[in-house]
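Pilot study result, target chain (445 residues):
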Amino acid sequence: MRTNKKKRIRKKISTARTITMIFTCIIVIGTVLLKLPLSSKYGQNISWIDSFFIATSATCVTGLSPLAIHNQFNAFGQIVILFLIEIGGIGFMSIPVLFFSIRRKRINFSTRILLRDSMNLETKSGEFKLALSILKISFLIQFIGATILSSQFIPKYGIPQGIWFGIFHAISAFCNAGFDLFGNSLISFTEMPIVLLTISLLIVFGGLGFIVWIDLLQIRRKRLSLQSKLALATTIMLILIGCTFFSRTIEYQGSIINNISNIFFLAITPRTAGFFTLNYGTIKQYELMITMVLMFIGGTSGSTAGGLKTTTFSILMLKVFSVFKGKERTDIFYRSINEATISKAMTLFALSLIICTASIFILSITEVSEQSNLITITFEVISALGTVGLSAGITPTLTIVGKLVIIFLMFIGRVGSLTVIASLNNKSNEQEAKIKYPEEIIMLG
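Predicted structure:
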């Protein structure tokens, strides 16, 4: 019995380490490809640190960049970035899933475990079929988004470039990456509601979570899981809160649909997307604050989004409300939430705060440019950890140490702090099963 338990523990740690190593390998390959003169316009290759930064940002679907992507990279370089975004967004295990599907071969058990953990699947069986369904849904949504965006871009940029812009920005939006080829994100499209609404919906679809989509498609045959209910309820609540605050930000002009699309976009994009239609370095402090809160929460578990995650946030809030009511159990939708899940949510929240605080402290020492202050540094740190990609203007001025800190935050934000910690841990918890010490009460508050 103990031997089996020990094997399961080692298998879990091994999986976490494998995920971390594969993400690292993808970033290294991307760094080398982006460094090549073949990737840059006019053969002007970039520094290793900038190449490393952009490869990490693309693989971790963040969108932060010290360089203007549209000016620096040619078609080959942009394709490399797009592939990094797709692999990082949908998951690196999408490649073997497609391979096994095309070859019609059975997938072995260890690959199934890696597939389940890499895509944050809770299922104990049918991982391959579920992953294949996720890929089909993802590609279908991206195809529809690319078609709509291309129809808007072709009249302005011509057929070849319009189609390419449609494909690139549809994938970037669905994967919540935020990379753009315009140089000023979507500032030039504030009066094109179809573009803003399409980008916004792609962000929502990608950040809602694959499991939620599977549940919604099967709603006639079974009821929604608690995971899906919490994700949908929290997502709707955060969108409404964002719309309420950002309705004061825009300058009302043009049609009603144009104003609504701008408000909706501003409420959606902090949810780990990274596209913007205004300069975040010039908006009011309370608007920066609500943006940082939305960035910190992020999207849903098992999605292309980063951040603390909507389900983690909702579980923490539900636990707080239960404590206020004097209840020992945490209940929602006629279901009780497992205490182990609540403990994991608290751990994730604590780790996020510790990582943010330490990073802000380091950057406050290393970054001394005119744009850098405590607010802009905090904004940059939360944006990187939440894999959002929005910036208050300090990304191009970051020092080498600052870039390395942001790279670390983007990696942690995408791979997951618990996964990275598990990959570094060589010890099992076998001793914990042998020894149990007496409990003692400690005063709190």
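One observation from the pilot: Confidence is low (pLDDT under 50) at residues 5-13. A full batch analysis is planned for the follow-on phase.
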